[in-house]
Structure formats: C-alpha cells, structure tokens
Amino acid sequence: MLPGDRSRLHTMSIRVRPHLGVGLCLYLSVTLGLSQGQASGRLRLTVLPEDRLQMKWRESEGSSLGYLVQVKPRAGDPEQEVMLTTKTPKATVGGLSPSKGYTLQIFELTGSGNILLARREFVIEDLKSNSVSRSGQRPLGATLEPTPSLLGSPDLKPPGALAPSQDPPTLDGAKSGDGVPGEEQHPPRGPTGVGLAQPTPGLEGPNHARTSAGGSGEPGRPQFRCTPPMPADMIFLVDGSWSIGHSHFQQVKDFLASVIEPFEIGPGKVQVGLTQYSGAPQTEWDLNAFGTKEEVLNAVHNLHYRGGNTFTGLALTHVLEQNLKPRAGLRPEAAKLVILVTDGKSQDDAHAAGHVLKGLGVDIFAVGVKNADETELRLLASQPLDITVHNMQDFPQLGTLSGLLSRLICQKVQGRSPRRGPGE
Hints:
By secondary structure, the protein is α/β, with parallel strands linked by helices. The protein is 20% helix and 24% strand. A six-stranded mixed sheet has the order 13-12-11-14-15-16, with helices on both faces. It has a five-stranded antiparallel sheet with strand order 1-9-8-5-6. The longest helix is centred in the last third of the chain and has 17 residues. The radius of gyration is 21 Å and the shape is globular.
C-alpha cells in the first residue's frame, strides 16, 4: 500500500469477546511514531494497574462517527479478543496477559465503512523488559520508540463496521492509582488477580467464560467459575421502561443469565436479588429468595417485562430501602454490589441515591445500552470507572459483555474486605 493511503473496510458482522483486566503496578508508556503519510500521527500505549492498556492517538481530521478499537491475541485465542468504540481518541481495555502477543488496530468509523488509522503489535512483558533495560530500574513511566507497524499489513483482518449511537461505549477514565496496594510484591497476575505461579482459589478454569446462560464455550475448554473468598450480595437493577421493548428485554434477560452463570450461588457464597424498574420499582425477588444457581437462572428466564418510564433515582432509593436490608437477606459480612442495566437517561435525580449507596460501601456497576447517558453512568458507578462503566451501542452487543462483566465483578469482590452494609 502506498504511503498516505487509508484502507477502507466495508460492513461485516462484528464479533466481540472481551476479557477481564487484572493487576499490575508498573506504568509503562510506549510511543509509536508514524509518518504523516501513514495518517494516524502518534499512538501512545500505557500499561496501567490491573493490566489495563490505555491508548491515545491523534484525532482524525474532518467529520467522524467515532473510533473502533480492536485488541486481538496473535495466537488466535478468541476468548481474549476485545473490541470497543469511543467518540474520543483514547480508550482503555483490560484483561491483557503479560506474556501474550497482541495486535492492536484502531479504526475511524464513517458512514461508508471503517478506515484503519493505526496498527501495532506488542507483548506487555517485552515492553516492560525494554523499559527496564534502558533505565536500569522500574520507572513509573518510560517512553520507548519501537519500530512502527505499517498500515496495510498483509495479515490484517478487519472487523465489521458499527453504526454508532449517540453515546458509543468507552472503557477509559480510570485513575492510575486505583490498583491494590502492595501489588508490586506479587508475581505477574492472571485474569483473576491471583499470581500465576500459584493455584487460583475460588476459580475453575483459566481465561474462559460461558457465552450464554447454561451453555458452554468451545468444547473441551475449562469454563470460568467464580467462588469469591467472602460472601457477596448482588442486586441487579434492571430498566424495564417502554423504550426497551419486548424483544430487547429478552436480550437483557439472556445477558443477566450469562453474567450470573459463573458465580457459585448458595448459603455462605453469592446471593442474587433483582429489581425491575420503570415508573415504579418492583422487587422481583430478594437476596434470600433462592439458594441455588438453577433457581436464580429460572427466575431470570421467567422475568416479565413491565414497561413504563425511566426513574433510576427512585429505583436506587428502592434498592437502598428495600433490597439491601437484613430482612431481604443482606449479610453483614458480605460484599455489596448493585449492577444497573439501563437504556436511557433517568427522568429523576439518580446521582444523589447513587452517592448514598457508594458511601455505604456498595459497589455500583453501570451498564448502558443504546441511548443511555454515559455521563450519568459515570456519576453513578464506583471507581475505577473503566471497570464499572460499560456503554453498549445496541442490545445484541450485551452478549459480548457478559463474560467480561462476570470477571470484573468477581475481581471487585476479591479485592474487598468485609464491612457492615446499609441498614445494619
């Protein structure tokens, strides 16, 4: 391909398989310089704590619908492929194995297809080694100038084009200091935040999550399981407003089942409650309603769509006053989590109720779909936001998020210490 050309990619079906981010306590900046003829300017990669890879690039000239970021293992492991979209020229992804080789590709989204802006191959351990050899010590940040990967590489496999909504999902915005204290003393960390040199307590199978409720991934592969080292009480707060519709609500139910499936549910383990909300919140079942995973998944399957308006603030208040109470099954020693799923902006003040919940030690994950207000999601969610905020373009994409979200929830619980919850 001649310098200055852009590879225009046409619409295909998209396949997204994200993966969990885990801990690192080393910052590493890598600058990739591309000539003006290669269109993308500079691409900057930064390895953040919890194995998150932050990338920034030069903003495209002219009108753009946003950007598509693809991080794909060179070994071809589809379970660790990550795609996301963003309106700004930056993004953060998690779940990168330090020893695995990856290919990063960044595309500009346009009305007629995707345009390749930058391509880079990297291995995190190699980047760390290069940094250490140049400085003689582990710096908080080090800039390297690797040989740039040219656009139009013969092994390029373009992803499909997306039609971005008003708020394409981003996974950036994390604070670099949000890692777990003392992680520098640990070996490189695997996908659950546990040292690779040791067995992983509470987890069965490396790096693989089920892709649908009750189903399995590729035959013969071990499946991801989460048995946290402490009890966990999880409330799913599900938007059932008119804007979702019956067919999309079924996709929401499939997503919920897939997120729940990896967890070990039972006395002394994980409890799951669910509230559906629109004009008025309705507790579908309390934390102590079911004692087995099969019962919970059956309840999700039988969940009925209610319809109505979107009052997220009222729903969060309902969670605080009704769901997170000992009479509803809340346990003093358990980690407390709320997983919000919504497709729109709240018609009331949701920030105040979210602030109260977080102040009481409740971790909030916010999942937005289609017309969800990302600014609102980021105000409601707990830190770090690149782990707790996920904004998907449309309902079919929820299925690509479920495995990642299960792992992130598991990681969040593993990083917490027992504390007393609200209402105790």
